[in-house]
Amino acid sequence: MKLLAVASEGFPFIKTGGLADVVGALPAALAPEGVHVTTLLPGYPAVMAALGPVQQVEHLADLFGAPARLVRAEAAGRDILALDAPHFFARAGSPYLAPGGMDWPDNAIRFAALGRAAAHAADAMGFDALHAHDWQAGLAPAYLRFAGSRVPTLFTIHNLAFQGQFRADLFGLLGLPSAAFATAGLEYFGQVGYLKSGVWFSDRITTVSPGYAAEIRTPAWGMGLDGLLRGRGRDVSGILNGLDTAEWNPATDPHLPAHYDATAIAKRAINKAELQARMGLAIEPATPLFCFVGRLAWQKGMDLILEALPAILDNGAQLAILGSGEAALEERVHGATAAQPGRVGSFIGFDEGLARLCYGGADAILMPSRFEPCGLGQLCALRYGAPPIVARVGGLADTVIDANEMAVAAGTGTGLNFSPVNQEMLAAAIERAIGLYREGEAWARIQANAMASDVSWARSAARYAALFRGMIADRAR
Asked: How far apart are CA 89 and CA 184, in angstroms?
């Protein structure tokens, strides 16, 4: 089976978040299932530089006002198509944001171009199916549908909170028939909805965990699309994300001063000491060290961590924070760090090596997200033996087995869950974790269970392959 995947980013060529990790890992995961994936990415400078010599496979004479081309290359073990459209993508910096932090003013047309190019490639180059990721690829299914193509499409929602909504007067620039701008189409509360397009015009829709697939079909978490998602019925499903377990491996990770596996987990103490030093914390081997890695945002529950700080400090533990995000939360993190030297440490920004050190050295990872489509952080924490403390939402609930009293007795817990998502319940979970940590044997069992968890793509890749085969069979009828 020949599959074309289209996304706005993909590791290791361009990455701003977990979407890139998923797009980068799926081709290798699907190969054993007999699915050959070609990934279409925008021709950002970083992508074009990473590809090296390329072969032009399609010339697009007029892609929204200027010529462009589709080029192909084998790079980093992946089959890549790049949309070489300098008028849209030959820009330094973020794929989405202009200097100053605002969206590029032409994002609507930039990612319409990506969708149109994906539809053209899927149809003209003989692909069996198209897999479109998130709103930036949301118009691809619409372009295929109105071109009369027989190529089936799967649309994956990575985060429903980001929908790609644009002014209605932009619709006339997209090159779609007027019938497409309707409730049964792209129209979304008087605007053009790119993510809605993907949901409406695709043969199947997936989210990145079964729990999130259920949540977004409710008014509480459906972000205005719950009715449409419920209406699609069995066409909507959740398939868990996984990790590239070769890339994420504490036994070989070059960012860790000490490598280890489940049989040598005591070596984590070396990483813990290095993490404490890097974060300006007191180097105390027996002190429980909690860590947060990610966006400093309301969604991620960073405010709850700061409100629950007494549960950490009053029980003799430490906190390390790595990330950036909302200015007010960054300021609060700076304040907590200054007020508690040696007990609270932080790094505002992102550093891949420091993130790996957090997973390989912290005793527990905090993820109190108010909603979480899947989350990769808890999978990294499990893989690296840092039991995650997670809110019981979305993919966090699907992947972390709570080490409650019965689970501890049965030897099955891999982390701690809490609900509802508030400061009080997070504090209770932290205190429970500190108690288990100080029991020693119980915490060691939880760590071992965490590292034994299957966080690979194997099961999910089989589900994706079955879904693609079903879509193709349905279109052939």
From this structure: 31
Report the alpha-carbon distance of residue 388 to residue 200 in Å, rounded: 36
User: Nearest CA to 43 among 20, 72, 22?
Assistant: 72
70 pLDDT band (50/70/90 cuts)?
very high
Domain map (residue ranges) of the chain = 2-242+457-476, 262-452
Helix residue ranges, H only, 297-416: 302-307, 309-313, 327-339, 352-361, 377-383, 394-399, 405-410
Per-residue pLDDT at 100: 82
Say whether domain 262-452 belongs to CATH 3.40.50.2000: yes
Q: Please state whether the predicted TM-score (pTM) of the whole model is above 0.85.
A: yes
Q: By C-alpha distance, which of 83, 89, 84 is closest to 106?
A: 89
Show the tokens assigned to 387: 């039991």
Q: By three-state DSSP, how is residue 289 classified?
A: strand
How far is Cα 79 from Cα 36, in angstroms, rounded to an integer? 9
Give residue for tokens 């002190």. Answer: 287
To the question of whether residue 272 is assigned a binding role by annotation, the answer is no
Of all residues in the chain, what percent carry a pLDDT higher than 90? Answer: 95
Asked if residue 3 lies in contact with residue 33, where contact means CB atoms within 8 angstroms, the answer is: no
Q: Which CATH number fits the domain 2-242+457-476, given the four candidates 1.10.1740.10, 3.30.1450.10, 3.40.50.620, 3.40.50.2000?
A: 3.40.50.2000
Digit-coded pLDDT (tens) for 384-441: 999 999 999 999 999 999 999 999 889 899 999 999 999 999 999 999 999 999 999 9
